[in-house]
Every structure is written in C-alpha cells, then in structure tokens.
Structure prediction request, 337 residues.
Amino acid sequence: MTNQCEVLPQLREAYKDYFMIGAAVNKWSIEAEASLLTEHYNSLTAENEMKFERLHPQEQQYDFEVPDKMIAFTKEHGMSMRGHTLVWHNQTPAWVFQGDSGHPADPQTLLMRMKSHIHTVAGRYAGQLYAWDVVNEAVSDKEEEFLRPSPWLDILGESFIARAFEYAHEADPKAQLFYNDYNECVPEKREKIYKLVKSLKERGAPIHGVGLQAHWNLDFPSTDDIRRAIERYASLDMLLHVTELDVSMFAHDDTRTDLTAPTEAMLEKQAERYTQIFSLFKEYSAHIKSVTFWGVSDRYTWLDGFPVRGRKNWPFVFDVEQQPKQSFWNLIDVARS
Ligand code: GLA
Prediction:
C-alpha cells in the first residue's frame, strides 16, 4: 500500500541512461503541478506559450513574459527545455499572411516575416533550449496529397520548410532542429514524412531530428507500426524525440461521454500499453533521446476538450489526484528490467 509520504522512484532517474522524460506545461500547471514536475521530469515544453500567436501577436509586438518564466523555472530546477514551435499552419496570427488592400502577402514579405520571427525568437533563447520543433505538421493526412495546403505553402511553395530550418540554425546554431508531426506511425503518412525529411537532408538543410507527436490511444497505433516508424526515421540518421505523448482512454470512434472516472479495465489496458510503448522506446534508446508527455497528470489534458468537447480523459501515468497509476509502476518496471 503506497501512502503519500512514501518516497516514489523518480521517472527521470529511472530513465536517465535512456532518454529525458518531459512534460508539456502551461501557466497553471507549472505552479499547480510544480512538485510532480521537479520530481519526475527533466525536460519541459510550453504547451502553447511559444507558438507564433502567443509570442508575436502583432508585427511590432512580441511577448516573452511567460516563456521567460518557464525557462527560469527549468534553470532553477536543473531541467532542460524544448522549443515548440516556429512555423505551423495553426495558432499563427492572420497578419502574418496579409498583404496590402486585402491581398495575401507576397512571397518576399512572408519570407522576411518568417525570418524575422525565427531570428528574434530562436535568437532570444539561443543556447537555452536543447531542441526546437522548427516546422510542425506540414505533411498532409490525405491520400494523394503530399504537403498540407496552408498559407505558408500557397505563398512560398515547398521551400518554406528548408528556409525555416536554415533561419533557425542561423539563430541558434547549437539547438537540435526537428520536424514534428502526428499520425507519424500511420504507414502512408510515415512514408510522406520520410520523403520530406530525406529531401531536406539531401538539400543540406540543417535538420537533426524527427519529432513523433505520439497522440495515441489504448489500441492505436499497433506496436508493429510504432516500431516500423521508429526504424524508418532512424534509418535517415535522425535523432528521434517523442514530443507529445498521451495514451487516450478512447478509440477514435468512441464517443461515449458518460464516464466520470476510468474503469478498472481501462486502467489495466493503459498500463499494459505503457509497458509496450516504453519497452519499445527503451529498445531504441540509441535513437530516442527525449520522451515528452503532453501534460503532467490527469488533472488536465487537452483531450478533455478534444475530439469530444467536455469529455474527461485520463491519458497520463499520474491520476487526477497527482498519484501514480498502475501505468507509472509499469514504467518503473520497464526501466529496471
Ligand atoms: C498539436 C500541436 C501541439 C498541440 C496539440 C494539441 O499536436 O503540435 O502544440 O496544439 O496539437 O494540444
């Protein structure tokens, strides 16, 4: 029987020979979950606070207050931080893509804005972040479509991706630069991500890694597909970071809204799933250097609002009371096995 005073093994310590253990944080969780964070995690990612719309809402206005505090917190506690994210089709303000009199920005203007944003942001934090998700989610989920339509692509063409990596490298030459995406283990999309990263490498773009977002659930994706994705990306001699891990209790087509707590069966299945997933990560730890959960404990997850608004989810290894779940103990067992 565990009681609150008993000292728990620390996740970060258990995995110290394999990879860093990270959590996505926001203004609330960095205070409310500070003790869990400092005990178990050694890498932080800002959930939203380093995105374009938050840092740079108007062309002449930057706001660094919250990320500055997050970085100070990591320094105070001997943690590291990943930067997320510089170029994305979402959470980017409309002004970025606007030109004169209602027309879209011309390519030169947009490229200049992108460069200035990356130089300012990555330059400010140069040497303080160990990695950046430079480009997020540029690959399409649709069959027969390689890159996702977006104003970046429409105005600048495919080269916007390579340019973003070049600017990030100029601004922070020591940071490891990542391409980050979801559905990264789905075979069709995996091949497109592979193709993109390979072509960036061949062009000499300064890309060092692939970020596997890992928004997964109790059944999806299969461990075989996870293994194949890891091997495929690693074959490009890329570092791998698992950047946004959560294991949702609900399959994609499960729209139940009646549960107020996870069932025993769900908790058991999730724990088994965490064992499988972390066994794989450990097996490939020569490539995987960082594993970040997209939150801290089940008290808060973005999945409480997505894809079913207002439906509680319990995707992490600490419960709503911030206590370890069976999933936590399974992770400790995997690390020690
Ligand atoms: C994507 C983004 C993250 C976050 C999640 C949802 O995965 O990369 O920054 O917005 O969606 O929380």
Residues 264-283 form the longest helix (20 residues). The mean pLDDT is 96. Residues 84, 136, 182, 213, 244, 302 surround alpha-D-galactopyranose (CB under 6 Å).
